Amino acid sequence: MVSEAPKRKKRVTKPKAIVIDMDGVIGDFLYTLTWLQNKLKGTSVSHNDIKTYNFVDLNVTDVRGNSVTGEELFATFKEWEPHGIYAIMPLLPHAREALVAFDKLGYHIILMTARDEQYKEQTRLWIFSNDLPYHELIFEKDKAKKIRNLSKQYNIQGFMDDNLDNIKDVSENTNVNQIFLIESPITRDVEIEEGDFEKVRDLWETTRYFKEVK
Q1: pTM of the model
Q2: Distance between CA 51 and CA 125 in Å, rounded?
């Protein structure tokens, strides 16, 4: 009797995915926050004046000479966060077009935000109202750790964020193929040497780096 050769396990191809931050990449959070501060306090701070997400170290002066501290901005943010601040953000230029392009190319789009998950419905309302294509919405502050976990399920081809710390963490601690630092008021003056990630003008610019999924 001839024994049968053991059957080889079929190699499972992981779906190709991209992970995209939301605030500062798809929606203009800093514009919304400074607009709200100006409405409430009569100031005229520009979102371009905000050079760090570490509001503790922030102190800006508007064109009228009014001083606005990071603590004041943060207090405004926390006061209005439960009342819909995320739901009224304007889209950044060509952000929706970029998501549509990724969707047409066949990528599994994962939106990942550091917001607290209690604001999930507010976030989804904003996504729906702007008709943004996506496949998963994840609330996670430690993005590199989450991406390592997601890599068991997906072949993650790209990561986009406007937070340099997140970009460096993902670059150093994951196997994501292409990583992009999106320019924002926070990162506009950041100089980057050649390395494992690139700085680009906006989300739309990243679409030229990705090919159709076969």
Answers
A1: 0.91
A2: 28
Q: Is residue 6 part of a domain?
A: no
- Interatomic CA distance for residues 146 and 140, integer angstroms: 7
Q: Which domain holds residue 148?
A: 16-28+90-209
- Look up residue 141 and give its two tokens: 């502050």
Q: How far apart are CA 191 and CA 199, in angstroms?
A: 9
Total number of domains constituting the chain: 2
Residue pLDDT, tens place only, 13-52: 899 999 999 999 999 999 999 999 999 999 999 999 898 8
Residue 109: CB partners within 8 Å, gap ≥ 6? 17, 18, 20, 99, 102, 103, 133, 134, 135, 136
In angstroms, rounded to a whole number, what is the distance separating the alpha carbons of residues 214 and 204?
22
